[in-house]
UniProtKB/TrEMBL annotation:
MF (Gene Ontology): ATP binding; protein homodimerization activity; RNA binding; tyrosine-tRNA ligase activity
Organism: Roseovarius mucosus
Keywords, comma-separated and alphabetical: Aminoacyl-tRNA synthetase, ATP-binding, Cytoplasm, Ligase, Nucleotide-binding, Protein biosynthesis, RNA-binding
InterPro entries, per the entry: aa-tRNA-synth_Ic, Rossmann-like_a/b/a_fold, S4_RNA-bd_sf, Tyr-tRNA-ligase, Tyr-tRNA-ligase_bac-type, Tyr-tRNA-ligase_bac_1
Name recorded for this polypeptide: Tyrosine--tRNA ligase
Highest taxon, organism lineage: Bacteria
Length: 417
């Protein structure tokens, strides 16, 4: 794509690698150059926290605001009751209204780290689509909105087609999701003058639906922009680690573990991730990403510090780096390592080392923990752990013990006060 944008926002999107596709580059560029543009990304409230897989799009909203425009974080209080079927093999479990509200509260705390909310023309807005979806009259909705959708066309979208090609059930409830998401764009345009929807490239079909609906119903020009679906250089889905999802909530993943996730970035991904997940100048990101050998480790520390500072603050980033240095360079335990506390009652007759490894998040199951030990991947206080039947009692916990899985994942176990 050879289009050269005039607007700062599109320049950032292109130069830093955020852009997969756009419905109308020139039209959007002109709108961005003419004044403040309001744009949104939707988030269904399926968990108590956002995770690293969401972070690329959150950074897009942050750049939108930094370049003089207004972001909307649209919480799917209504659509979560249906569930997005995109590229899933089964139906999402349905959540209660109380669970959805609780999840939204947790997600809002993450957004507040990246965006400035308020009443000003460029302040971010936090909205909930339950505001207009919960009160819909079904018959009126079918007559006024449903008539604009072609079932033939909806069946052709890859997110639906892939499910049907595998002969997996797609409920009528889920099939309605794309209509509701399209209606969100129409309502945001009506209520708040929103002219741009952004999302991952898997949302392209849903975004196109919203654009078509808005043009048909109120004849307004609106735009869509998608980001690439990221995988790491070794083919893994971005945001997954050996311990599971990399959560953006400090209550679900410690700042140290978050920092360590970025420090463990592969050499080939370092420059790309610096451009996507930090605000360092592109030229500096390219320079750091081109380093080789042991020098690239310094770039990874810069990446980990910058990303952790944005989410958890500079003190948390500095503490995480200090802990990592203590653990890796000096063989210590570090003050900021993930910690498992056990009670005196739990260890009165001893607690198995396998159970402690699982509780520390270093293995997902007892079977995996035993295999880790058998394959010489586990260590206790930096010494090889070879006995899967080892029991830990109170005497062994007069001071904290350090458990390790491989060279990069560590945790402390101590008696609770």
């Amino acid at each position: 794509m050879t289009y050269r944008p005039k607007s700062e926002f599109l320049n950032v999107m292109m130069s830093r690698g955020y852009l997969a596709d756009c419905t109308d580059y020139q039209g959007l560029d002109e709108a961005l150059s003419a004044g403040t543009v309001t744009a949104y990304i939707g988030y269904d409230a399926t968990a108590k926290s956002l995770h690293v897989g969401h972070l690329l799009n959150i950074m897009m909203l942050r750049w939108l605001q930094k370049t003089g425009h207004r972001p909307i974080t649209l919480m799917g209080g209504g659509t979560t009751k249906v569930g997005d079927p995109s590229f899933r093999s089964d139906e999402r479990p349905l959540l209660s209204p109380a669970q959805i509200d609780d999840n939204i509260a947790g997600m809002n705390r993450v957004f507040a780290r990246y965006l400035a909310y308020g009443e000003g023309p460029q302040d971010a807005m936090m909205l909930n689509n339950a505001e207009w979806l919960d009160g819909l009259n079904y018959l009126e909705f079918l007559r006024d909105i449903g008539r604009h959708f072609s079932v033939n066309r909806m069946l052709s979208f890859e997110s639906v087609k892939s499910r049907l090609d595998r002969e997996q059930s797609l409920s009528f409830l889920e099939f309605n999701y794309m209509i509701l998401q399209a209606y969100d764009f129409l309502e945001l345009n009506r209520r708040h003058g929103c002219v741009l929807q952004m999302g991952g490239s898997d949302q392209w079909g849903n975004i196109i639906n919203g654009i078509d609906l808005t043009r048909r119903v109120i004849d307004h020009e609106v735009f869509g922009l998608t980001s690439p679906l990221l995988t790491t250089s070794d083919g893994r889905k971005m945001g997954k680690s050996a311990g599971g999802a990399v959560w953006l909530s400090g209550d679900m993943l410690s700042p140290y573990e978050f920092w360590q996730f970025w420090r463990n970035t592969t050499d080939a991904d370092t420059g790309r991730f610096l451009k996507l997940y930090t605000e360092l100048p592109v030229e500096e990101c390219d320079r750091l990403g081109a380093l080789e050998g042991s020098d690239i480790n310094a770039a990874k520390i810069i990446l980990a510090n910058a990303v952790t500072t944005l989410l958890h603050g500079p003190e948390a980033a500095a503490a995480a780096e200090a802990t990592a240095r203590e653990v890796f360079e000096h063989g210590g335990v570090g003050d900021d390592l993930p910690t498992v506390e056990v009670t005196a009652d739990e260890v009165a007759e001893g607690i198995s080392i396998v159970q402690l490894i699982v509780r520390a998040g270093l293995a997902k199951s007892g079977k995996e923990a035993k295999r880790l030990i058998t394959e010489n991947g586990a260590r206790l206080d930096d010494e090889p752990l070879t006995d899967a039947g080892l029991m830990i009692d109170a005497a062994a916990l007069t001071s904290p013990i350090k458990l390790s899985a491989g060279k990069k994942r560590h945790a402390l176990v101590k008696l609770s006060d």
